[in-house]
Design brief:
It is a single chain. By secondary structure, the chain is mainly alpha-helical. Helix content is 74%, strand content 0%. Helix 1 (2-10) packs parallel to helix 3 (47-59), helix 3 crosses helix 9 and helix 8 (116-126) packs across helix 10. It starts with a helix and ends with a helix.
């Protein structure tokens, strides 16, 4: 319920009470449909659609329809609900997005990583609604965050698929923070020693790095203040995968 409240707070665009009613309806249906299901980690399955909805609303900035589809994205595939049930309860738009999401695994299974470029093109034309792809990326991101509970063979397959197909897709759609996280998580599972080594070094150098950045920024800040400019200065740490690519 706490996570559900977080999802509601993170939706930036709603049409008020009617939208909230539809979102609650979708949440209740998903909760009921998945009530006897558990993830490999042992947690209740409903935690997954809730997290997907949170990524969709908070990180990607999508609205009510996408949150509803996030809650329901596994309902047709994994439970007794049919696409027609979703259509009669939520309308054509939601049903069309859910249908697109349900078809994506079939497209992946029939596509080798050598055809990654074709896959990306196919995905982008699979639906006339880009929300299908955006929700799928959110779904993949949460699955990658919780990959530790999977058997090793499955982990490696999902991580490789993420690196070759989903991270480039996120990049193409301008979702750079999601792309970076997908690449880092893929590296964590495909080359754990390298990932742990670089992560440890990033952690160990945090204090020195922050001091370096502060010292670097100070004269710029002083000069801008002196001129009376309004500004913000942002710094970021390179992602683990990005550092590894540069080292190579």
């Amino acid at each position: 319920l706490r996570l559900y409240s977080k999802v509601l707070k993170s939706i930036r665009r709603t049409n008020g009470r009617e939208d909230i009613k539809l979102i609650r309806k979708a949440f209740n249906i998903a909760s009921e449909a998945h009530k006897d299901m558990r993830r490999k980690s042992g947690e209740p399955y409903i935690i997954h659609p809730l997290n997907v909805a949170y990524i969709v609303a908070n990180d990607i900035g999508l609205g009510t329809t996408s949150v509803i589809c996030s809650f329901l994205h596994d309902v047709v595939e994994d439970t007794d609900y049919r696409l027609e049930d979703i259509r009669s309860m939520f309308g054509d738009k939601v049903a069309k997005i859910i249908d697109g999401l349900t078809k994506i695994p079939d497209v992946i299974d029939s596509t080798g990583s050598a055809q990654a470029e074709n896959f990306k093109k196919m995905l982008l034309t699979l639906s006339d609604d880009v929300r299908v792809i955006l929700i799928k990326l959110a779904d993949r991101l949460h699955n990658m965050r919780t990959l530790d509970s999977m058997p090793e063979e499955k982990r490696l397959k999902i991580a490789s698929e993420t690196k070759f197909l989903y991270a480039p897709l996120a990049h193409r759609l301008g979702l750079y923070s999601i792309k970076n996280e997908l690449e880092d998580l893929a590296l964590k599972h495909t080359e754990p020693e390298i990932y742990n080594q670089i992560s440890k070094k990033i952690e160990e150098t945090a204090v020195d790095r922050n001091k370096f950045i502060d010292d670097f920024v100070k004269p710029i800040k002083d000069a801008l203040d002196k001129e009376g400019f309004k500004y913000s200065i942002i710094s970021r740490v390179k992602s683990v995968n990005s550092i590894w690519q540069k080292m190579k």
